[in-house]
Every structure is written in structure tokens, then in C-alpha cells.
């Protein structure tokens, strides 16, 4: 009995440490691309102030990360004007989102009271980095500023002196009293399309199937099956949150011949509230897709870890490093790679579209990431439409009773 109590206490301690981990500030990235942080100097030149250790390999240059510091980001690409346009677009979008956040969000003060009640002790996240006001600002940003997609500027670019195509994503983030541009660069096939119209065209079957199902359960099953067939993952599930923060798997689709003797069947299984930590739920409100390209591959450090004495906020970064807690969680399930897309219904985190790979990990290119994001949004829209129809029917029945 004493041993069981010690195990339970150790689990509670682990859950607490997991919930207090600042996952958006981890100084690592996944090795499928490079990440650099850029700050404009007095002349407006975008100078690199932080670089991932794999930047030389991804940028096709022979020097290591330290030689990137202070360099003009544009010199590494064949079209400097295109890079200028992408960076300026990211900055413009950041200003627009900040204005939207400031205007018409009168529920913020009430929301902060709610957060203070539910997040007791979480100020420990910020000790040594930020004060309470910065922490509160970050919570507000995740809750009401909208998805990261509103802040990104993206495009296919070419490296200087090379034929390789890369997918570049830029987002402007607050950093101390100033700001930084966080830039992600991934190698891609030049034939890969990242336009929403072409991706939607490839999802025509899913769109048509969603339009003819009536129940939320059927909607979830339809999306899970289609995305499993489309993505190449071994298992795709829809996980729905309950009011108390816990959740259940309400849909599950697996490849033919899936080894249920080795891997658990999750359909109908419910998980406690801390299975998805509070800060992960909050971050899903902001950055709605999380891809772990390989659980086993060592992550790459960002150098220096601090810029002007502070860690860089990677809330909007697709290649953001993976928490050691989450890595262990996936390993315990036998998962080698994963992708998770948030399902946001009426502005709240309704659930997750979760994909698991159990064999050889594979890189999920920007086109497939867009398909996963669109699938979660299609499901979101369908659930909202279903809820509206259900409400209208209830109101109609009430009206009939009152007549």
C-alpha cells in the first residue's frame, strides 16, 4: 500500500511539472527544417539573432550556426525582394491581429479572473523570464487573438545559388519591448502546392461526404476515415473534450490489418483532464496544428537559447520542439510520429483530430499539413451547423407547445 501511495504521489508530481512546462519557450526545433529569429536593425535590415544548429544544412551553406548571427536573412535566398515581401506581410498581419485583439474584446477582464482561479501556481512558468503582466498578456493572446494562420506569411522560395525549393513561414512575435520575426525554412518538392484552392480540390470527396451525414458521430467517423486514407497515418481518431476538461475518443479509423493485439483500441476510451495539459489546450487555441515528425529523432537546439536575455516565443512555430513529457507519452503508446489538429467550435476547443504512425516515420509536407488543418475546420463547421439545426428544431418544438 505504501508503494502504491508513493507511485500516486510521483504521478501527481509529474502531472504538475508537465502542466507548468513553458512549451512555447523550448529552445529546440524538429530536424525537418531550420528556424531562425530575425530582428530589424536601425536601417531596417532583417538580421539573424538566433539560429537552429541545423541551419547550415538546410540553407546549403558550409558554415555552422554561429556564422548566421548578424547576417542579413535575405542573402541566403535567390530573390531578396520576395523575402522582403514575406517579412513585411508577417509584420502587417501582426499589427492587424493586435488591433483586432484590442478592439471588441471586452470579455478579457472577466476571462482573466477565470484564468487566475483555474491556473493557481502557474506563475512559476514565468519566474526569471516574465512578470505577471507579460504572462497575462500571453494567456490573452492564446485565448482571443485567433489562430496562428492569421499571423503567418508563407511561400515557396529558392535558396541562393541552388535549385532547391523551400517552404518559408514567417511570423512576428512580441519579444520584450520590441519584436522578432520567427522564420521557418523546410525543404519541399517544387511541385508541392500550398494554395488552399488546390488542396481543397484534392479533398472534394471528404467535402461531399460531410454534406450527407446527419449526426456528429457520423461526421467524426467520416473525417477520421478520409484523413487516415489521405494522410498515410496508421490510425486517425477524433477526441472530444467534456465540460470538466477530460475527454473521450468518439471516432477511430485504422489501416487494414492493424495489430490490436499489440496496440490498444481507443474508441470509447476516456482520459482524465490532465491527459492534455492546460497549456497545451490553450496553445491549440492559437496554433491549431501540431506535427511530431519523428518521436525518436534528436531535436536541434536553437542558439543562443536567449535573445536579449529572454527566450523566444515559438507559439506560432510549426517546427517547435517537443516536450520531453509528450515524447515519453507517445513512446509509451508505441507511436513513432503524430499529427494533431484542434477542432474549435464556437470559439472553444471542442476536440482534437489525432493521427498516429506506428512504423517508419515520414515527413508531413506543407500540403498535407494544410489538408489536416482544413479537415479539422470542415469538421468544426459541420458540427456548428448541426448544433444550429438542433437548436432550431428545439425552439420550433417549444413554439409549437406554446401555441
TrEMBL record:
Keyword Transcription: no
Annotated signal sequence range: none
GO function term, MF aspect, one: photoreceptor activity
Residue span, Phytochrome chromophore attachment site domain: 215-381
UniProt keywords, alphabetically: Chromophore, Photoreceptor protein, Receptor, Sensory transduction
Domain of life: Eukaryota
GO biological process, one term: regulation of DNA-templated transcription
Protein name: Phytochrome chromophore attachment site domain-containing protein
Species: Pinguiococcus pyrenoidosus
Amino acid at each position: 500500500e505504501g508503494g502504491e501511495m508513493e507511485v500516486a504521489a510521483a504521478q501527481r508530481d509529474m502531472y504538475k511539472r508537465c502542466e507548468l512546462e513553458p512549451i512555447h519557450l523550448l529552445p529546440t526545433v524538429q530536424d525537418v527544417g531550420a528556424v531562425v529569429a530575425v530582428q530589424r536593425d536601425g536601417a531596417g535590415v532583417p538580421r539573424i539573432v538566433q539560429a537552429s544548429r541545423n541551419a547550415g544544412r538546410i540553407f546549403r551553406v558550409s558554415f555552422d550556426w554561429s556564422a548566421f548571427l548578424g547576417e542579413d536573412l535575405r542573402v541566403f535566398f535567390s530573390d531578396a525582394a520576395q523575402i522582403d515581401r514575406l517579412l513585411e506581410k508577417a509584420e502587417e498581419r501582426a499589427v492587424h491581429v493586435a488591433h483586432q485583439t484590442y478592439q471588441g474584446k471586452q470579455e478579457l477582464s472577466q476571462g482573466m479572473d477565470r484564468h487566475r482561479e483555474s491556473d493557481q501556481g502557474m506563475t512559476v512558468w514565468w519566474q526569471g523570464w516574465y512578470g505577471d503582466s507579460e504572462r497575462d498578456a500571453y494567456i490573452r493572446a492564446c485565448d482571443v487573438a485567433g489562430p496562428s494562420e492569421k499571423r503567418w506569411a508563407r511561400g515557396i522560395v529558392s535558396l541562393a545559388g541552388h535549385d532547391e525549393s523551400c517552404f518559408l513561414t514567417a511570423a512576428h512575435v512580441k519579444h520584450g519591448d520590441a519584436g522578432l520575426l520567427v522564420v521557418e525554412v523546410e525543404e519541399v518538392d517544387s511541385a508541392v502546392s500550398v494554395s488552399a484552392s488546390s488542396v481543397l480540390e484534392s479533398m472534394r470527396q471528404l467535402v461531399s461526404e460531410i454534406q450527407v451525414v446527419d449526426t456528429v458521430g457520423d461526421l467524426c467517423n467520416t473525417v477520421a476515415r478520409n484523413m487516415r486514407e489521405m494522410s498515410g497515418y496508421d490510425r486517425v481518431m477524433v477526441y472530444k473534450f467534456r465540460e470538466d476538461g477530460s475527454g473521450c475518443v468518439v471516432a477511430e479509423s485504422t489501416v487494414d490489418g492493424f495489430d490490436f493485439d499489440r496496440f490498444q483500441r481507443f474508441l470509447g476510451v476516456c482520459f482524465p483532464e490532465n491527459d492534455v495539459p492546460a497549456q497545451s489546450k490553450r496553445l491549440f487555441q492559437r496554433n491549431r496544428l501540431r506535427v511530431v515528425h519523428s518521436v525518436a529523432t534528436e531535436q536541434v537546439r536553437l542558439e543562443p537559447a536567449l535573445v536579449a536575455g529572454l527566450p523566444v516565443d515559438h507559439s506560432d512555430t510549426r517546427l517547435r520542439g517537443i516536450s520531453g513529457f509528450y515524447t515519453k507519452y507517445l513512446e509509451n503508446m508505441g507511436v513513432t510520429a503524430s499529427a494533431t489538429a484542434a477542432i474549435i467550435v464556437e470559439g472553444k476547443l471542442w476536440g482534437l483530430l489525432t493521427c498516429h504512425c506506428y512504423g517508419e516515420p515520414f515527413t508531413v509536407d506543407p500540403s498535407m499539413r494544410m489538408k489536416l488543418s482544413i479537415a479539422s475546420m470542415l469538421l468544426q463547421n459541420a458540427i456548428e451547423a448541426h448544433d444550429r439545426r438542433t437548436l432550431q428544431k428545439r425552439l420550433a418544438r417549444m413554439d409549437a407547445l406554446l401555441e
